[in-house]
Amino acid sequence: MGVAALLLPLLGAAPPGARAEDSSGRLQSAFAAAAAEYRVPQSVLLGVSYLQSRWDSHDGAPSVSGGYGPMHLTDARTALKKAVGHSHAEGDARGDDSRAPLRATKAVPTNTELPARLRTLPRAAKLTGLPAERLREDAAANVRGGAALLAAAQKQLGRPLSERPSDWYGAVAKFSGADDAATAGTYANDVFAVIRDGERRTTDAGQKVTLAAQPGVEPQSAQIERMGLRRADAGGTECPKTVSCEWIPAPYEEFGDGDYGNHDLADRPKDQSIDYIVIHDTEATWEQTLKLVQDKTYLAWHYSLRSTDGHIVQSIKNKDVGWHAGNWYVNAKSIGLEHEGFLAQPDSWYTEEMYRSSARLVKYLSKKYGIPLDRQHILGHDTVPGPTTSTIRSMHTDPGPYWDWSHYFALMGKPFHPTAGPNGGLVTIAPQFELNRLEFTGCEKAGVPCAPHGSSAVRLYAEPSEDAPLIKDIGLRPNGDPSTIDVNDMASRVSAGQQYAVAERRGDWTAIWYLGQKAWFKNPVPLPTAVHAKGLVVTPKPGASEVPVYGRAYPEKDAYPSNITPQAVSPLPYKLLAGQRYATGGTTTGEYFYSPTFDTTSHRVVKGKDVYYEIQFGHRVAWVRAADVRVLPSNAS
């Protein structure tokens, strides 16, 4: 998980022979040719490919599921042979010092028999007669393999190779690889929604691909009833009807000397509100993810999402508290979503169907629990702060710079767009993902450049120049060492959707207030990396030269009953200085969920009177006491 120690990614580097397409229309022609050869409607082929990869080739590198090319043809055994390992920050995902830290669990996926959904490329090789290597490396051949699989599925279902897209609903559902009817049906519905609405996109290889809208398409969804797929055990899952959701419970069991796992029973939102949703990547394969969440000695989160088809597994009820974020205050107030993938591999590519499934789930949870759909409440694990100074360096960095936050929020109906003019006082970070190819290192080995890839991140400098030093984070490097461009170094970058107060502008450069200092990023008018916004900001009260910043919003000492040791309201090593402003995500009163034992009779939510403002302080969020700051409109002088 974002909390796993060392796990072996199901990934490999791009093969030496991989290359960009040599003309911007070649891939569109490949779809037309493959559709004609295998008598598959071109709109169906394009729609399936869009759901698989958004038509990207990923330079021949495999996905987390061992999928290759625009059709995401899977060859997991080959991917495993080329797998590379990488480390991930280690820390206590529970983030509470009222009990002993959890023991770290190390796990490596084994090369055992893989499910059919992870072996589609070898089958496509047999159907087309093309070498498997070519299907992995050549986008046009990959599309041809996908068309062959769709045609074979249509024949297997006893359906004609019709020119009408609506006749192909069952074949599309089968292509998903899902073994349950709900997941297969959701996948097919999404493909046909893309066909109805149409899409247009320039891919990661510079290919311009268009799927013209066909609003009259009516899929024959009854076909799925005759496919003999299993019915997943919903088990009272808390999911919207528009996704496939299965109940696989995490164990709440005692073991050893009074130790227990892997979550806490609670009664949310009755005893405390749910204010956050935390987005993780799993740092593990799907099969390993399910093993981990069912391990009573490990950790649990609420939902897991599968890469190949967006299938969702819920493992603990939303009323209960998962151990996933590394900050006990955030754990107690959040729901955790783990997405199959690896942050340090740009071609771990999160599939379109997983994005869509996750966006529907988040939108549903947002409405159910009143959670605002913004980046101060829909947190990446990489934006959860260390609760204390000593934990800052062990906090996690997933889902990382290759998670497409702009696309994700657009799917939720909350795109990042300007909300003010140039004098609004705030900016919303909003780079164009595909074109924003920052240089990172450390994806496979420390100091080695990562493969070029679109990113949600924007880099910060001490001066308005790319030759200037990167912004420093004294919490991560108390000795003053410089920041790096390592993929896991969060010190000097911001991410799409985050909002910051503007400190200054010079030509193509914008400065924001960040970690108590002025931080510059390049923001040219022809290709902006941020848009104008307005809202509320906090600044120190008059007469205060600085105010403390906190990694958790705990109650004051007097709020605790005599039988519970008060948790320290300890500030982080940062300061919010006079004259600086930070965007606020709203107020909360101090709370602490006391739950150090398996026996729930001692559990209690301690509620204080101190009020805090959540702020976007650095890459991670933080809190300041309302008594220390004043609130202003962002455009106030």
Write the layout of secondary structure elements.
Blueprint: E1 6-7, H1 26-38, H2 42-53, E2 67-68, E3 73-74, H3 76-81, E4 86-87, H4 120-128, H5 132-137, H6 139-156, H7 169-175, H8 181-197, E5 199-202, E6 208-211, E7 245-247, E8 253-255, E9 259-261, E10 263-264, E11 276-281, H9 286-293, E12 303-305, E13 312-314, E14 321-322, H10 328-332, E15 334-339, H11 352-369, E16 378-380, H12 405-411, E17 426-429, E18 457-459, E19 493-495, E20 499-506, E21 509-514, E22 517-522, E23 530-533, E24 536-540, E25 546-550, E26 571-577, E27 582-594, E28 604-616, E29 621-625, E30 629-633
Parallel strand pairs: 7-13, 11-15, 11-16, 12-15
Antiparallel strand pairs: 1-4, 2-3, 5-6, 8-9, 10-14, 12-13, 17-20, 17-23, 18-19, 20-21, 21-22, 24-27, 24-30, 25-26, 27-28, 28-29
Helix pairs in contact: 1-6, 2-8, 4-6, 6-7, 7-8, 11-12
State the main characteristics.
637 residues; alpha+beta; Lysozyme; 5-stranded antiparallel β-sheet; 12 helices; 30 strands; globular
